[in-house]
Specification:
The structure is a homodimer.
Chain A lengths: L10 H12 L4 E4 L4 E4 L9 E8 L16 E7 L5 H11 L5 E6 L2 H16 L4 E6 L19 H14 L4 H14 E7 L19 E4 L10 E4 L3 H15 L7 E8 L5 H17 L3 E8 L9 E8 L2 H7 L11
Parallel strand pairs in A: 3-4, 3-5, 5-6, 10-11
Antiparallel strand pairs in A: 1-2, 2-4, 7-8, 7-12, 8-9, 10-12
Amino acid sequence: MKKIINKPEDVVNEMLAGLQASRPDLLDVNYKKRIVTRKGVPIKNKVGILTGSGSGHEPDQVFYVGEGMLDAACAGPVFAAPTMDAIYDATKLINSGNGVLYLVKNYTGDRTNFAMASEIAEMEDIKVTTVIIDDDVAVKDSTWTAGRRGVAGAIFVYKIIGAKSAEGAPLEELKKLAEEVNINVKSMGFALTSCTTPLKGSPTFALGGDEMEIGVGLHGEPGRERTKMKTANEIVTYVMDSILQFLPLNAGEEVAVMINGLGGTPIMELYIAMGIVAKILEEKKIKIFKAYVGEYCTSLDMAGCSVSLLRVNKEYKKLLDYKVDIPYSIF
Amino acid sequence: MKKIINKPEDVVNEMLAGLQASRPDLLDVNYKKRIVTRKGVPIKNKVGILTGSGSGHEPDQVFYVGEGMLDAACAGPVFAAPTMDAIYDATKLINSGNGVLYLVKNYTGDRTNFAMASEIAEMEDIKVTTVIIDDDVAVKDSTWTAGRRGVAGAIFVYKIIGAKSAEGAPLEELKKLAEEVNINVKSMGFALTSCTTPLKGSPTFALGGDEMEIGVGLHGEPGRERTKMKTANEIVTYVMDSILQFLPLNAGEEVAVMINGLGGTPIMELYIAMGIVAKILEEKKIKIFKAYVGEYCTSLDMAGCSVSLLRVNKEYKKLLDYKVDIPYSIF
């Protein structure tokens, strides 16, 4: 295994130490519980926005904690849900009295632990509401999921809800908006290589030297098909066709596009994919409001990418443009 | 070879198409010459800032064209210098009459072509000045370099000079500042895997399954040493010691830190490195002004990273904080 790590069991805490060292002005970290909170929480009169999942999907999720996005995030071990206990503690930390919204990608482990935490929180009279994100069109029911998986489209939900909560929207309105955004975002990815988790130290699944997995999950879950390597045009066209079946778009409509690298993919290749997506959308007379190209929700060192399309309206556009201050930024 | 590409010979132009599609409001692209310019050039009364090099180092360099950074960049073929002709054309496009500053990483091919272009430009009475960036402390004289190589520290030079030029500084002052920043930034990297260029289709150099290359160059040039894999603590401590030999810092001084992924390295690992760098600096009572963790200057799909330290003063800090609008951003 070739990784910049010390001991496999320490990777999450050592990453959190680097995160805090990079933005000591913005974040607090509870290393025991692996909770990252925005400084100053709970924010007065604001609904707290919380997410969490296994680590290994960076920048999702702890790197989105900050002003205008998440109030806190719980980092589980690599590819394993955070504990109910940590979620409950984070809930208390960010509840100003206006309640807490859980944004949870659809994996059974995460759903279970967030559900238990919300029950305990409600016993203490903290209002908690959960929205499940399931934007992946690739497959229904998967290794760790009943229904459809939540993938990079979640970042659009965090972004829009983070902005709306900063504007002071109440819990019920945020819940409705998050559910609506989730319906309007669809995603699909593909892998050229497997990821390697630090603890296992060898690839999670076996892919031949000329094979790829279309519709892969964020932990290496099987997708729709294992095929011989295809050209960028072929892969991206197939992925776009699949997404557009679930998100029918009419000429004249507008979308936000996300080309999300899965961890081991060069920026050059992500932009080649972006060019193909833009061409397909142009042919269909669908306008690109904004393009997000880079790493948003990864799978450790997996090579490959996902495409997400979000149908936008005037409100979404305003909220997507809301300025954030989060640790994951370039300058 | 596993890459999201169509034909290897088309990768640069297809990437540029994706780049333009992602920010049609900000950029113009000349596909024949592979020149990316900021819209509205030449900017009145402003010195034009130009760079260029082989492609494969994305986001360096075309992704830094925009407001507050580069006025144009020339993209060569993968790992090969842009032509003299393209550099000369870009020079004319961005010259407002106040002259053009070339910021060139120290590779012989790039230096030669920029030098020829500047000679022709000067024959046409365009004032051109060149600053060579050579921040890599790993080795002196390398496969494609006489002297020391220019690596990710170049991004600090672009950032500071881009901001200063936006403030209206004249050519001679920018040149002096760029030279000074270059002296104050030192870098060193290491590779866990080789990169694979699209045309060759197989790894540029051979590394054993348990080996790493310390001090590697941005094209896979040999570094100081090939060793068995080390722990993150061991590698990063060695790299920091090497940098600090060339950039002696006293307790109380302040630095900007860059942890630069080389293309195939997960964000988790970059932040583990960040935590170690922060600890070493803290022990030496050197303050971190700002941390830049992510991909800034890559080598296609190479796994590994580089560390850069920039000694900052009040002016550098102000210029580093100058807001930019470039295609390489997260939100």
